[in-house]
Amino acid sequence: MDVGEVVAIALAGLAAGAINTVVGSGTLITFPVLLAFGYAPVTANVSNTIGLVPGSVSGAVGYRRELAGQGRRIRRLGTASLLGGATGAVLLLVLPASAFKAIVPVFIAIALVLVVVQPRLNEALAHRELGRDGEGGIVTPLAVYAAGVYGGYFGAAQGILLLGILGVTLPQDLQRTNALKNVLAAIVNGVAGIYFAIAAHVEWGPAGIIAGASIVGGQLGAHYGRRLHPAVLRGVIVVVGVTAIVRLLAT
């Protein structure tokens, strides 16, 4: 890798770590960058997932105050995330690369729609009734498992999916829900990353650069992320996501 590639991947990892902590669609930054430098789609996805694991953990640690009192939820829903992430990771390597190339543009398009509608989703969650009892019954872990399958397979906007699921099923405010989302996403990325490290071809150079940068990004996201203008952030994500779709369809 030349200096320009290293810098570009590092900046993408920094941005993705911050975005994953605040929103949950950092893959739409790093994945297109790896594609742009010529990495095969599945290899880029595998290396990207491994690289973003430390950033996911960093973001979860940054929200540790909001995690107080959520130990039971983390154990219950974390198990669903672990199983879902493992399922999605296995599917990525079992299904042919052509399936990934065909499916992922659709996933990215769905992710971009979620990014665009996120303000309305957040507004709806913020104004809903929080006083009811219950944890969503069996529906919540099943939905979290499904989000984990998606996250283990590709993962763009996994965090937004989790925010939607947890926001409508758990009786708590959005910041505590976001903290829980960060933990669950870290579990999905972690189990998928471990499996990929053992069973897949990984480009360790880009993965290592993304890992280091995403740790810093995760902390920045936890500390400063709420100050970013959301419209600017969404605009950047949409641009790089559309670029990734075009590149995948053109190759």
What would you say this structure looks like, in words?
- By secondary structure, this protein is an all-alpha fold.
- The chain has helices spanning 3-22, 27-36, 41-62, 71-94, 97-126, 139-153, 158-169, 174-199, 204-224, 230-250.
- The longest helix is centred in the middle third of the chain and has 30 residues, at 97-126.
- It is globular, with a radius of gyration of 17 Å.
- The two termini are 22 Å apart.
Kindly summarize this structure in a few lines.
By secondary structure, the protein is mainly α.
Q: What are its keywords?
A:
single chain; 251 residues; mainly alpha; 10 helices; 80% helix; 0% strand
Q: How many strands? A: 0
Q: Uncertain runs with pLDDT below 50, 5 residues or more?
A: none
N-to-C terminal Cα separation, in Å?
22 Å
Radius of gyration: 17 Å
Output the number of helix runs: 10
Largest sheet: none
Structural class: mainly alpha
Helix content: over 70%
Shape: globular
Q: What's the pLDDT, averaged over the residues? A: 85
What layout of secondary structure does this protein have?
Layout: H1 3-22, H2 27-36, H3 41-62, H4 71-94, H5 97-126, H6 139-153, H7 158-169, H8 174-199, H9 204-224, H10 230-250
Helix pairs in contact: 1-2, 1-3, 1-9, 2-3, 2-10, 3-8, 3-9, 4-6, 4-8, 5-7, 5-10, 6-7, 6-8, 7-8
